[in-house]
Design a protein that fits this description.
This protein has 353 residues and is an alpha/beta fold. The chain has helices spanning 9-12, 17-22, 43-49, 54-58, 61-75, 88-92, 114-118, 129-142, 154-163, 171-179, 181-204, 222-238, 258-263, 277-284, 302-316, 336-348; strands at 80-81, 97-100, 104-107, 147-152, 209-213, 247-250, 268-270, 288-293, 322-326. It binds coproporphyrinogen III.
Length: 353
């Protein structure tokens, strides 16, 4: 790892391998956590969620704490990610939406007019007290394991709001973007304020890193990303800059956008599995990277998984810092034991002499 040899006493005080890698400091081992580590791959998750709708579980302090802890206890990952969903802050300000099993977020009245954009009010601390209480409880229970807070980025949230649900081609979203740029920027500005406030509240309650998910940004060309999206993602990341926590920025299919996503203000750029990690490191320059094992590899024989994981770890050594992760979320059908074995492999990995 190309870390700076000069460390300050403040740097030395940071012991978490995850936080050290995010900051470009040498960690004691390669840190690992998984996007969607909490969720349907775990039988204990399916058990606790029985009969409780997804969004309700996100607003129940006890459930958020328990579900967030489940993968930490089971796999021994180096970071927890707080159990929630990207649409939770929108629900909290009164947007009529639901998370439909097998589909994802569905918005009752898709947002396409200036009146509807104007009705998106700021997020207030009182809107999410059950969530900030959960963050505080988690920080106690995690006993030193860092908690990652997160939010959805303006483009990805706008896509759900404008389409009314998941979309393959983001047609209506782009129709608004190209056809009504003023309304588009007003919408993304509102979402950026809400997402930024949501992240701020999580960090103030004790989260020690944040991840901004722009899952669907890969649908954009670099030029359109720069014109229509990047300023708003920058605003979100900027809104927590003073809190001095590592900021991770991730999207799927974003090979052509990686340097831009870094420039939006990320300390760590998340990389999906389509881009070789070495290439990604070249694109993001002096920032840390996170990723990037194909989530479907977990269905392969253990030797194959571990051989590919070793390649990712080796490639990661060229980065300013490397946090091992999958290239996207854990698939629900994944055998949780394969994840535990992968964590053990990453932690004990020694390069061959
Ligand atoms: O462990 C973790 O990673 C934390 C939990 C988390 C969830 N959603 C829980 C969830 C996180 C970080 C998210 C973020 C999220 N939600 C994103 C960005 C990350 C990504 O995957 O790209 C996106 C795009 C969403 C929107 C969303 N919510 C989708 C596409 C789905 C899946 C729909 C389905 O049923 O297949 C959801 C629902 C959701 N969010 C579930 C979980 C555990 C499944 C709901 C259930 O268990 O019933």
């Amino acid at each position: 790892m190309t870390t700076d040899a000069r460390t300050t006493p403040l740097d030395d005080a940071i012991t978490s391998p995850f936080l050290r890698a995010c900051r470009g400091l040498e960690p004691s081992h390669t840190p690992v956590w998984f996007m969607r580590q909490a969720g349907r791959s775990l039988p204990e998750y399916l058990a606790i969620r029985e009969g409780v709708p997804m969004l309700e579980s996100c607003f129940r302090t006890d459930m958020v704490v328990e579900i967030t802890m489940q993968p930490v206890r089971r796999h021994g990952v180096d970071a927890a990610i707080f159990f929630s969903d990207i649409v939770v802050p929108l629900k909290a300000i009164g947007v009529d939406l639901d998370i439909v099993p097998g589909t994802g977020p569905v918005v009752a009245e898709p947002i396409r007019s200036a009146e509807q954009v104007g009705a998106l009010r700021d997020l207030e601390p009182d809107d999410v007290t059950s969530i900030t209480d959960a963050v505080r409880g988690l920080v106690q229970e995690l006993d030193g394991t860092p908690l990652i807070g997160f939010a959805g980025a303006p483009f990805t949230l706008a896509s759900y709001l404008v389409e009314g649900g998941p979309s393959r081609d983001h047609r209506r979203t782009k129709e608004l973007m190209y056809g009504s740029p003023d309304l588009w920027h007003a919408l993304l500005g509102r979402i950026a304020a809400i997402a930024g406030q949501f992240l701020r509240l999580q960090v103030e309650a004790g989260a020690s890193a944040i991840q901004l998910f722009d899952s669907w940004a890969g649908a954009l060309s670099p030029a359109d990303y720069d014109t229509y999206v990047r300023p708003h993602s920058t605003a979100v990341l900027e809104s927590v800059a003073d809190l001095d926590v590592p900021r991770i920025h991730f999207g799927v299919g974003t090979g052509e956008l990686l340097s831009r996503m870094g420039d939006a203000g990320a300390d760590v750029v998340g990389v999906d599995w389509r881009v070789p990690l070495a290439d990604a490191i070249g694109r993001v320059g002096p920032r840390a990277v996170q990723g990037n094992l194909d989530p479907t590899l977990l269905f392969a024989p253990t030797e194959v998984v571990h051989a590919r994981a070793a390649e990712v770890i080796e490639a990661g050594r060229a980065a300013r810092g490397h946090v091992f992760n999958l290239g996207h979320g854990v698939l629900p059908a994944t055998d949780p034991d394969a994840l535990t074995r992968l964590v053990d492999f990453v932690h004990s990995y020694e390069p061959e002499a």
